[in-house]
Amino acid sequence: MLRLWLTRRWLVGTLVAIVFGFACFMLGRWQWGRYVEKQTKATAIATNYDAAPVPLTPTLLGVPLSPERQWTRVTAHGTYAAEADLLVRNRTLNTVPGFEVLTVLTTQAGTILVDRGWVPNATTAAEVPGVDAPPQGPVEVTGWLRTGEPSLGRDLPAGQLASIDIDDARTQRPAVGPADIYLVLGAQSPATPASGHPVTPLPRPTEDLGPHQAYAIQWWITMPGGIAFVFWAVRREVLARDETEDGAPAPPKPKKVRIWDEEDY
């Protein structure tokens, strides 16, 4: 059996099986990494989301948020910038497309973007939806700190963003502070004055871990499948040769004669 396995045909088959197993390993590793990310996110939400808020300080804004500190709940006093909203495109709420509304808030700890919530798209894609303006004067806000999102590199009209990238926002609103952090609004006092275009607060983030752990295990279980198939195929060929007297390949089975193939006499 070993002699047959060392022939060129089966060595190539074995190499393909090894490549297949390595690909399964890497895919399983990628899925496991996604599972760990989701688990870390879910743990951070469970730990921080409902915790008592802490004051927003320069120290919080001066240190990048680690995965474990995402959704840290804070409270701050400050003033919203007038007519300085930025609209983040392609955001859905309950399957309805719309925008998220970012507004610059100046506090004693520093200047930070506040995600005030969601508004639906306008009647046509070319229109910008109306948005209730934030309250004027001093406000107290409570919300959750989040790390900014990666830039998508899209060229959009002024006042719009493709993602919550802090550098992109700073390009349009230079007052935004240097920290790669923004705040998701939970509550504020006084409330936003109603003017017919309410901003809907964002819902609690999902803590679902998804199927990534199961997918990782499935890929890793599949890893030896290629080698197992090669071993089975080589063994089958050896057994087939052993059934012949001189070691030649076994003759093909005779073709089955069907009734309609027979000649009528």
What is the topology?
Blueprint: H1 2-5, H2 8-48, E1 54-55, H3 58-62, E2 72-80, E3 86-93, E4 96-107, E5 111-120, E6 138-147, E7 160-161, H4 166-172, E8 181-189, H5 212-222, H6 225-242
Parallel strand pairs: 1-2, 3-7, 5-8
Antiparallel strand pairs: 2-4, 2-6, 3-4, 4-5, 6-8
Helix pairs in contact: 2-5, 2-6
Structure description:
Strand 3 and strand 4 (96-107) form a beta hairpin. It contains 6 helices and 8 strands. It has 2 domains: 1-49 and 208-244; 51-189, OB fold (Dihydrolipoamide Acetyltransferase, E2P) (Beta Barrel). It is an alpha/beta fold and 265 residues long. Helix content is 32%, strand content 23%.
The appropriate CATH architecture of the largest domain is Beta Barrel
Number of domain units: 2
- Strand fraction: 15-25%
Order of helices and strands: HHEHEEEEEEHEHH
Average pLDDT works out at 85
SS field, number of helical segments: 6
* Main beta sheet: 5 strands, mixed, barrel
**Structural class per helix/strand content?**
alpha/beta
Query: Distance N terminus to C terminus?
Result: 50 Å
Question: Can you tell me the overall shape?
Answer: elongated
Cα-atom radius of gyration = 31 Å
Count every beta strand, where a strand is a DSSP E run of 2 or more residues: 8
Query: Percent of residues in helical segments?
Result: 25-40%
Strand line-up across the major sheet: 2-4-5-8-6
Under CATH, the topology of the largest domain can be stated as OB fold (Dihydrolipoamide Acetyltransferase, E2P)
| CATH class label of the largest domain | Mainly Beta
